[in-house]
């Protein structure tokens, strides 16, 4: 087994068939390995040109304009291309990483910027085709941007807003292969936004428009489980609740990928995902418990685990606009009530670090503003001051198939009971959770966020300004909004630093959420899977992978 630190409902019939003849492992955690000298009998290996990935949650809902959860984003990355992308380099550890300081053309072969930084002109590649066979033109790029803006919702619309693109009048088709964006003021995030794998793709306007209806003017129902991209893979089939299959795009402008077929299997149980990985029935698995990563799987033959210090933050949030959580003393009390070291050991098994505030490790201009340490007496004092010495009731919502979230939820339930806070746990499917998060109807829950662009204004814009699309906790501070707006357009480094640090100070004092930890991103595969490149969005670029 290889392990290095970088920086940075499966149907039971299918499970039984694919493991037929293989050693059947117990379902209780942790999975026990055979004794010394023994090895599990592996299921028949899939061809080297097929990659099977086991995921925890539902697979539906991959409209790139509105998707907000990781599994869907991972699939979007497989089906679509963007205008630009990050360069890639080899780190000192021998692993491959995205260089977030350097950009290269993707669908745009080149681009220019006016001296005042307001006009961006993108020259598109000739001969690029969508999976439909339609040629890529500047009209498709404009349609992709304008669709998101006109929808007035969703992650792509939000991101375009971060980049200063808020009106369809700002997007211009110069000619078939030239696309232009006109900004009202310079913007530090525009290339980062356009390079983001999951949520800034160019879509086939002809295919999408052909599926528009009077009741669905943006073909949202169609794009929820269909694709209209030019990426390295083409959607072959989709079985709700079971699997999605992609095949390599033979006409891909970069050349056909080495992996010719990618199959995503829905396997809600983490222990089932582990069994399948150990048996060799799958090649890659997501969301496995730290207990097994550092135990069962650590020295398992044929398994590779690579951990990356991703800029991710896990939070325990409450809706700031609802009582009792609209009282900062209650939010602070929850913060002081958490024994962080014990939580990290219990949940992550060492595969992560404490969170110091809203901006995660690895993001520029991070400032430690999380004043909370484990202090039970302080927590009790604050609850008494808020008139809640006798406690209150809470429903804590989290996602199915996420072992770290479930362990965290159970841990918090036990700890908060010490303060007469009665916690009812609510576990829901990932897709349902994502819908409720977007609608901001979760009163208390667990969430995690990863800034796809390594810039503090990305974090602030996405999760902490008043109208942020993923500000699930509904935090609002006008000064934070003002500072974030100023920072996005500020070219002076000293002023930028002052703005983002003041914003972090204010957020720390307001305590909109409890920052729990920064978990590592653990890539778990069979050891013959090679070519992985780590990107800030954590999405797998399947076209870089191959199997030995």
Summarize the structure.
This protein has 548 residues and is α+β, with helices and mostly antiparallel strands.
Write up what this structure looks like.
The chain is globular. Helix 11 runs antiparallel to helix 13 (403-416) and helix 16 (478-488) packs antiparallel against helix 17 (493-510). It has 17 helices and 23 strands. It has helices at residues 12-18, 70-79, 138-151, 155-162, 190-195, 205-209, 220-225, 270-279, 290-293, 328-336, 340-348, 376-385, 403-416, 430-439, 456-464, 478-488, 493-510; strands spanning 2-6, 50-55, 84-90, 96-105, 108-113, 119-124, 171-175, 178-182, 233-239, 243-248, 261-266, 284-285, 303-308, 313-318, 352-354, 392-399, 421-428, 444-449, 513-519, 521-526, 529-530, 533-534, 546-547. A hairpin with a 5-residue loop joins strand 5 and strand 6 (119-124). It has 548 residues and is an alpha+beta fold. It has three domains: 2-56 and 232-308 and 522-547, D-Maltodextrin-Binding Protein, domain 2 (3-Layer(aba) Sandwich), CATH 3.40.190.10; 78-223, Dipeptide-binding Protein, Domain 1 (Dipeptide-binding Protein, domain 1, Alpha-Beta Complex); 313-519, Dipeptide-binding Protein, domain 3 (Roll), CATH 3.10.105.10.
């Amino acid at each position: 087994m290889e392990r290095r630190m970088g920086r940075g409902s499966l149907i039971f019939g299918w499970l039984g068939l694919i493991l037929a003849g293989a050693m059947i492992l117990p379902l209780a955690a942790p999975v026990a390995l055979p004794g010394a000298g023994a090895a599990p009998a592996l299921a028949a290996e899939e061809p080297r040109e097929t990659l099977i990935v086991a995921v925890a949650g539902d697979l539906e809902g991959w409209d790139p304009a509105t998707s907000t959860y990781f599994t869907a984003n991972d699939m979007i990355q497989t089906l679509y291309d963007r205008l630009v992308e990050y360069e890639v380099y080899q780190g000192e550890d021998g692993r491959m990483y995205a260089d977030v300081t350097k950009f290269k053309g993707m669908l745009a072969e080149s681009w220019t910027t006016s001296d005042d930084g307001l006009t961006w002109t993108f020259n598109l590649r000739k001969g690029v085709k969508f999976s439909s066979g339609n040629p890529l033109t500047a009209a498709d790029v404009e349609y992709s941007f304008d669709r998101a803006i006109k929808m007035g919702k969703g992650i792509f619309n939000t991101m375009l807003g971060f980049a200063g693109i808020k009106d369809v009048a700002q997007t211009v088709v110069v000619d078939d292969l030239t696309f232009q964006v006109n900004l009202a003021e310079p913007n530090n995030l525009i290339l980062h936004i356009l390079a983001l794998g999951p949520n800034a793709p160019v879509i086939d306007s002809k295919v999408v428009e052909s599926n528009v209806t009077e009741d669905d003017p943006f073909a949202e129902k169609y794009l929820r489980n269909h694709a209209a991209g030019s990426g390295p893979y083409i959607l072959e089939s989709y079985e709700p609740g079971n699997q999605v299959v992609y095949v390599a795009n033979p006409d891909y402008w970069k050349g056909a990928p080495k992996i010719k077929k990618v199959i995503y299997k829905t396997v809600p149980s983490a222990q089932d995902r582990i069994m399948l990985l150990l048996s060799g029935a799958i090649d890659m698995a997501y969301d496995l418990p730290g207990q097994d990563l550092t135990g069962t799987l650590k020295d398992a033959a044929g398994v590779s685990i690579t951990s990356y210090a991703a800029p991710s933050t896990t939070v325990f949030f409450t809706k700031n606009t609802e009582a009792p959580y609209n009282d900062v003393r209650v939010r602070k009390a929850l913060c002081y009530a958490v024994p962080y070291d014990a939580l990290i050991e219990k949940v992550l098994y060492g595969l992560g670090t404490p969170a110091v505030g809203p901006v995660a490790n690895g993001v520029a201009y991070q400032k430690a503003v999380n004043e909370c340490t484990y202090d039970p007496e302080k927590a009790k004092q604050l609850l008494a001051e808020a008139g809640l010495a006798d406690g209150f009731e809470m429903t804590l919502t989290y996602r199915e198939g996420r072992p770290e979230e479930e362990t965290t939820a159970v841990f918090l339930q036990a700890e908060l009971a010490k303060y007469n806070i009665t916690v009812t746990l609510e576990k829901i499917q990932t897709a349902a959770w994502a819908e409720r998060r977007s609608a901001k109807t979760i009163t208390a829950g667990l969430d995690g966020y990863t800034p796809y662009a390594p810039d503090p204004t990305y974090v602030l814009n996405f999760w902490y300004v008043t109208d942020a699309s993923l500000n699930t906790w509904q935090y609002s501070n006008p000064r934070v909004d003002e500072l974030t707006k100023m920072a996005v357009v500020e070219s002076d480094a000293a002023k930028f630093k002052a703005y983002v640090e003041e914003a972090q100070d204010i957020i720390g004092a307001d305590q909109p959420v409890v920052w729990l930890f920064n978990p590592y991103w653990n890539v778990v595969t069979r050891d013959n899977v090679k070519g992985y490149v780590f990107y800030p969005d954590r999405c797998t670029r399947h076209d870089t992978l191959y199997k030995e």
